[in-house]
Amino acid sequence: MGSGIAQMAAQSGYEVLLEDVREDLVKAGLENVRKRLEKMVSDGRLETGDKERTLSNIRVTSRLQDCQEADLVIEAAAEKEEVKKQIFKELDLLCRKEAVFATNTSAISITRLARSTERPAKFIGMHFMNPAHKMKLLEVVRGLSTSEETVNIIIAVADKMGKTTVVVNDYPGFVTSRLIMNGLNDAIFCLQEGVATRKGIDTIMRLGANHPMGPLELADFIGLDICLATLERLHAELGEKYRPCSLLRKMVEGGRLGRKSGGGFYEY
User: Fold this and answer.
1) Quick check: pTM over 0.85?
2) CATH of domain 176-261
3) Domain 2-169: which topology?
């Protein structure tokens, strides 16, 4: 997600600093951007000069302190509240008071994360869809104290990136995760209960509901560990209808996390 967001920003003309905790990770992120741009050139969707300009807009670092001059920081770390809070505590001390902080979370409270800083009015959610460099939607999440100025800044940035924005209020799962995760979880229950095969379930939703991919395919794409973590959070805050299917929990415990592990509901 981080490399996809960096690519969109750089293609839009922004100067981007891409940071990760280790040098090998951040270099891998930049290489992902390079490969995607080269594919676009080979497909005739991008000029070579535009590819080079995009890459020249991205610098990389493994030092969080290098982010201190940023006007906008978009965090895309693991979907763990304490990890995100610690990052923002450090950034709050490093960055200028005028800088806007955004978190790319699918379900964690924007209001709670904002409390780890001294700038709740300049704190907002930017929930990019995966893959960030392709999907048009950006769910803009307004925390309890997010200012209208901050909302307008993020909408302007998103417009420049070519995103379609929908502003929502801070509530568990916002809109996308509440609806998508409930559907994915129900599909896994259907598989566990033997209602249909994995291929049958996915075909029904692709052809019957015109979804671009079936729910089990989508769960593999997102990552079953992320699906489970999101459902557990929604279950805790919204009740029984979001109780994770035991098959999902078993698969995560067995290391079958989807595409990133080579196998989930399907093999990759």
Assistant:
1) yes
2) 1.10.1040.10
3) Rossmann fold (3.40.50)
